[in-house]
Amino acid sequence: MADVLVLDQIRKSYNVGTPVEVEVLHGIDLAIRPGEFVALMGPSGSGKSTLLNIIGLLDRPASGRLLINGEDTTDLPDAALTKLRGHTIGFVFQYHYLISAFTAAENVMMPMLVDRGHPDRQMEERAAELLDRVGLGKWRDNRATNMSGGQQQRVAVARALAMDPTLVLADEPTGNLDTASANAVFELMRQINRERSTTFLIVTHNMDLARQCDRIVEVVDGRITPARQPPG
Ligand SMILES: Nc1ncnc2c1ncn2[C@@H]1O[C@H](COP(=O)(O)OP(=O)(O)O)[C@@H](O)[C@H]1O
Ligand SMILES: [Mg+2]
């Protein structure tokens, strides 16, 4: 099977063409195999979010190649990138970005709605099934605002899984949560990884969580440091 993700000499600069142009990713090489559960670590400002945005096809690199499931995305037009993103990548952010006036179920349906244009019975069933899976079946019709931070983040995990993505990208998904909620959200992602072989790339500063991953990738100053195994 092709690697889920291959990065080949990815570079990225900000403020291109201005006096403050600065390169923040200096030639990143990385391959992630199907079903891997990988932690991305590194100091604040080292380029982790920039890298995740490029991997998630939300931003384009200045140079280098990015392959997703063996498909080279480098020369794809925006519309094709959007479609590929919608069908292969799920996102979980530090802040959940749920729509507060919508119910849990409606939030989980959003990616399917964006893809298909109108709600249908199958979407409702899929949302219900996913909310059951994240332990929130009873909260299906509750508005997102009425849920705790940990519950909201579990809704965000369900939403990320809505399109059955190959790869879930999570940028500090537990960064805003208390320890117990953080552990619950992390454990949920780990279980989903084992059940469905969904590949995860998770930015975290939490070494306790990172050591439970298959592998830790460390970025320092826009470069990946040599591979190391989770300690302990
Ligand atoms: N939109 C932007 N414009 C200019 N500089 C940016 C922008 N986003 C991030 N940067 C800079 O790029 C570097 C990497 O940032 P980021 O990818 O957010 O790092 P991390 O997620 O590891 O904290 C930092 O120096 C940051 O200030
Ligand atoms: Mg960041």
UniProtKB/TrEMBL annotation:
Keywords: ATP-binding, Cell inner membrane, Cell membrane, Hydrolase, Lipoprotein, Membrane, Nucleotide-binding, Translocase, Transport. Pfam families: ABC_tran. GO terms for biological process: lipoprotein localization to outer membrane; protein localization to outer membrane. Gene3D superfamilies: P-loop containing nucleotide triphosphate hydrolases (3.40.50.300). It comes from the Bacteria. GO terms for cellular component: membrane protein complex; plasma membrane. Residues 5-232 form the ABC transporter domain. The keyword GTP-binding does not apply. GO terms for molecular function: ATP binding; ATP hydrolysis activity; transmembrane transporter activity. Its EC number is 3.6.3.-. PANTHER family: IMPORT ATP-BINDING PROTEIN (PTHR24220), LIPOPROTEIN-RELEASING SYSTEM ATP-BINDING PROTEIN LOLD (PTHR24220:SF689). Belongs to the ABC transporter superfamily. Macrolide exporter (TC 3.A.1.122) family. This is ABC transporter ATP-binding protein. It comes from Xanthobacter flavus.
